[in-house]
Specification:
6-stranded parallel β-sheet, alpha/beta, 234 residues, single chain
Length: 234
């Protein structure tokens, strides 16, 4: 039965902007703000379902192509979450870890992320990875570059490169691969979301926009995952 339980859940939180437009808000940020509330709820729902690892797609490398105003507002919202809402992570026992290409982030944003990770590092109920300025292809290229640098410096290369050794150069080193990926918003693709770590993950797609995602829909996805595993075991 334990094999049918999700240990690591990935979520592509899509649909905030469409939700705002559907509700006739003049700013798409109302959708992003509601999306943050749903994200915080998701952490609690994962704990209720005894899921120990959660990874969410918060901001992709492609999102940098959005309007400068929206990008600026998104990072203001991110800083507000890490400063004003981090106490909720501590109360829930959520250990926060951000992964992505932080070279594109401001020094202020990197410090806010570091501080959030530090104050939650003792938490142990849920290991949360937030993908910020993240792209799967970019991660693989950077991992290959770090490995090449280690080979050049004599720190690696003495043995054959295996999957296990290469995984040490990924952002998610030491974290188990994802079992199930949920994508909201209607699209049926992964959109550069952790291609290495989702190789064997089952996929659950829903037309529901992210701000309207619910604990009941999460349970539907978990039930789907269990049914797939049970059928495969027959």
């Amino acid at each position: 039965m334990a094999d049918n339980k999700v240990q690591h859940l990935g979520v592509i939180m899509d649909g905030n902007r469409r939700w705002a437009k559907q509700h006739m808000f003049t700013s798409v940020m109302r959708g992003h703000e509601k999306g943050v509330d749903t994200f915080i709820d998701l952490c609690e729902w994962c704990e209720n379902a005894e899921i120990p690892y959660l990874t969410v797609y918060a901001f992709s490398t492609e999102n940098w192509k959005r309007s400068q105003q929206e990008v600026t507002d998104l990072f203001k919202l991110m800083r507000r979450f890490f400063v004003e809402e981090i106490h909720r992570c501590i109360e829930m026992g959520v250990s926060v870890h951000c992964v992505g290409n932080f070279e594109l982030l401001s020094e202020e944003d990197r410090k806010v992320i570091h501080d959030a990770e530090e104050v939650t590092k003792h938490c142990s109920k849920l290991y949360l990875q937030i993908a910020l300025s993240y792209g799967g292809r970019d991660e693989l290229l950077q991992a290959a570059e770090r490995y090449a640098q280690d080979v050049k410096a004599g720190r690696a290369g003495g043995e054959a490169l295996t999957e296990e050794r290469f995984e040490r150069y990924l952002y998610t080193a030491g974290v188990p691969d994802m079992d199930l990926v949920i994508r909201t918003g209607g699209d049926r693709r992964l959109s550069n979301f952790f291609p290495w770590q989702t190789t064997y993950a089952d996929l659950f797609f829903t037309d529901t926009l992210w701000p309207d995602f619910s604990e009941e829909l999460l349970q539907e996805a978990l039930d789907y995952y269990r049914s797939v595993k049970i059928n495969k075991g027959k």
